[in-house]
Write the structure tokens for this entry.
Amino acid sequence: MLTAKLRPATPQSDQLEKTPTGIRGLDEIANGGLPKGRTSLVCGNAGCGKTILAMEFVARGAVEFGEPGVFIAFEETPDELEKNFLSLGFDLKKLVAKKLLAVDYIYVERSEIEETGSYDLDGLFIRLGHAIDSVGAKRVVLDTLEVLFAGLSDQAILRAELRRLFRWLKEKGVTAIVTGERGQGMLTRYGLEEYVADCVILLDLRLQEQIATRRLRLVKYRGSKHGADEYPFLIDENGLSILPISSLSLNHQASTQRVSSGISRLDRMLDGKGFFRGSTVLVSGTAGAGKSSLAGAFALAACQRGERCLYFAFEESPLQIVRNMKSIGLNLEAMVKNGLLRFHAVRSSLHGLEMHLVTKHKAVDEFKPAIVVLDPISSLMAVGSPTEGKSMLTRLIDFLKSEGITAMFTDLICSGGGLNQTDNEKSSLIDTWISLRDLELNGELNRGLQIIKSRGMSHSNQIREFLLTNKGIDLLDVYLGPAGVLTGSARIAQAAQGKAEVLVQQQQQVRKQHEWRRRRSSLERQMAELRAQSEMEEEEERQIRAQEEALTKTLAGNRADLAQLRGTDQLVSRTPAKTKQNETTGH
Amino acid sequence: MKQPATKSKATPVGAVPVWQLRLYVAGHTPKSMTALANLRKICEEHLKDYELEVIDLLKQPQLAKGDQILAIPTLVRQLPTPIKKIIGDLSNTERVLVGLNLREARKKE
């Protein structure tokens, strides 16, 4: 019985019990939460969010998980604490009144303290114990214990007491967070990490090109698997949002459903049905090639189907986009009003790449769109190095795909340039690539559209002329002339020329038909003449023959008559005589 | 034990003593006992008009908050102001006297 119970133990029962923090992303990284009944250390430099993380842990525990908590503040006054909690949307007073939270503020001032022999920190234990018991706390935060080091000079006592404190917390069975300031060459200034063996979270605030990004890393998590990377996080009115960016997997659902591009002729170019749902579409093009317009049409079509669309704009304000789209007959305003279309417009230089990723994550999580437009991605990619840019894009695409969101990115490329290395790198990430090109010919600039690739469908390989009219977007066939594709007025000229040629050809045909008819009738006439001639000759021959016969008869008759007259008996010779006669007349 | 071991000495009823001291302890630990003994000795020797209150935090944990007690034992000088805190078993009499600002006072006398 016992062995059976022990041996096939499921991973769950073996695993450490977890206390969910309720902080977006952290539970995911920590594979469920912080170790239950143990103490975790949160360390980092000043201003990187230690206190907020700790506050959120107790507040969310109290509100979302029904676990009362204790917050021991060493650095902040009750007033400041209350304000800080409120900034996260938690009413500290209410929580305290509901007995969901106990707060104690511990003030240590070295100048007011005289040390006169051995002591212990029972006072702290008693206060903590009292606070825990008063609300039945399951979660405890000590923010930050290191103040003690500044306030008390006997390090030996302090360290021994801290060790006792951590042990005591474990015995109490509370899940605790202690915070500590980052030290030189070590995780915390006073080496708190040596007492906390179970879980250490390191927060970091880094500046890169004047842009600050907060990052979180699980340095240590004994007995549990966890994400080991650095994860960027965001602090806003809802607290922390951590993005587990490295959950890069390639096991997205592949939908066979199709989504219209919003332009019927473009759909027809794409196997007649448009993009795959959940696929990633890149619209690249030079300045003014109509990338945003294409994106606008796509967004509008989605909204008209009743799907939600989230539009990330990095270069234009929402109002500007709405106005510009109106000029080509796309009424996005109505969609914004009925809540199907949401703009998320920030300058790309506002955050670092990681932060952009986090904000996008968050916006998508909140709005739950079916369609996402990023306009333009090139502006975003320019924020960091190309490697970072690509990695950010990969993670973003990955995330959108895992959510089954169809994404359209626009990308500004240099005019005249071919496909460069970065384009190729991007290409490997995306499913459908539409290239918009300026076609310059005869002193005109026209827009051309071409599908460079589209995974999983047969697509048109032809270039279409892309027309922005006040009734919307239209695609037209381009004419292939001797000098290449013809667009704009050249296309119109070519069309006219084509029409004229057809006319000429038609006329020629008519003429030829006339000619043939005439020739045939003349031939027929000739034939009739000849036939008449031959008939005439036949008749003549008949007449001659008749005359000859009559003549022969006559001659024979004459000869007989003569013979009779002469009284001869040579009647037999009449016939041979006739033959002879015949020959003579024939010549 | 509402007022455990409160001692008044040489103070007329109703008058405020010059020295108002509070000793925080946690149960009858050797450290606490030593501190109390040391304190009594110092009071007898150096203070004339004093009042001593001993608070056992095990019995009244909520009182720890008011005087910001962390270490045990802690002696708090309520009067004369400013408030001073002396932590430890008070075995170092010199330091206790400095803490109570008695060192200077004695020199003046």
Notes: Chain B is about 30% helix and 25% strand.
